[in-house]
């Protein structure tokens, strides 16, 4: 599954805590744009809570609901009672590029398999409920060459296409390198050709993801 051009991702690390049947559950959620970064985050949380009974985890790298790059671990809890329900909660959380660790300090009361599934599912849902998010936008890099007479109109049209000027070069004509969302490339090209009466030169240097 290819990456979607835009989706919600965690804006920063976020942590919530709750007590269930005398066990302390600490849920830590973080951005995970790559599998390597997801695993590094998990390792950091394990180092932070080395005395915990369990540091169960799950991650989804890619758009919300995608399973191509996903992982999970029960970390010593009965098989299927932590990692799987955590991953399921992530997949239904409408957030991509996300990793979560639920740290458990056992309080002496056994929850049973059903209780553990509910606990770990609820921890992830609680962690996502007030998670600060931002938008991941795949961007294309374009090269554009226009006549001097079109520069003012060209600059006025950039904000409507969320285009960002990376560089500009003045010679016989004016050359630009731009970044803009991949979903805007076609409409931008149409507007550019309309503006310049078909005289602009445009090349996609990097189509983005």
TrEMBL record:
Residues 144-199 form the UPF0029 domain. Residues 22-127 form the Impact N-terminal domain. One of its GO terms (cellular component) is cytoplasm. It comes from the Bacteria. It holds the Pfam family Impact_N. Gene3D superfamilies: 3.30.70.240, Impact, N-terminal domain (3.30.230.30). One of its GO terms (biological process) is regulation of translational initiation. NCBIfam families: IMPACT_YIGZ. Belongs to the IMPACT family. PANTHER family: IMPACT FAMILY MEMBER YIGZ, IMPACT-RELATED. This is YigZ family protein.
């Amino acid at each position: 599954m290819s990456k979607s051009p835009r989706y919600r991702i965690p804006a920063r690390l976020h942590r919530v805590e709750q007590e269930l049947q005398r066990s302390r559950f600490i849920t830590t959620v973080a951005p995970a744009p790559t599998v390597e970064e997801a695993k590094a985050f998990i390792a950091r949380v394990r180092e932070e809570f080395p005395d915990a009974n369990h540091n169960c985890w799950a991650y989804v790298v890619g758009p919300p609901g995608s399973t191509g790059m996903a992982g999970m671990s029960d970390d010593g809890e009965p098989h299927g009672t932590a990692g799987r329900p955590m991953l399921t909660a992530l997949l239904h959380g409408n957030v991509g590029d996300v990793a979560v660790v639920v740290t458990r300090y056992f309080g002496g009361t056994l929850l049973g398999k059903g209780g553990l599934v509910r606990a770990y599912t609820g921890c992830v849902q609680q962690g996502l409920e007030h998670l600060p998010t931002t938008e991941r936008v795949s961007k294309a890099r374009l090269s554009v060459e226009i006549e001097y007479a079109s520069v003012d109109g060209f600059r006025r049209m950039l904000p409507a296409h969320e285009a960002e000027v990376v560089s500009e070069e003045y010679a016989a004509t004016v050359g630009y390198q731009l970044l803009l969302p991949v979903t805007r490339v076609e409409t931008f090209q149409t507007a550019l050709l309309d503006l310049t009466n078909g005289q602009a030169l445009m090349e996609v240097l990097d189509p983005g993801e």
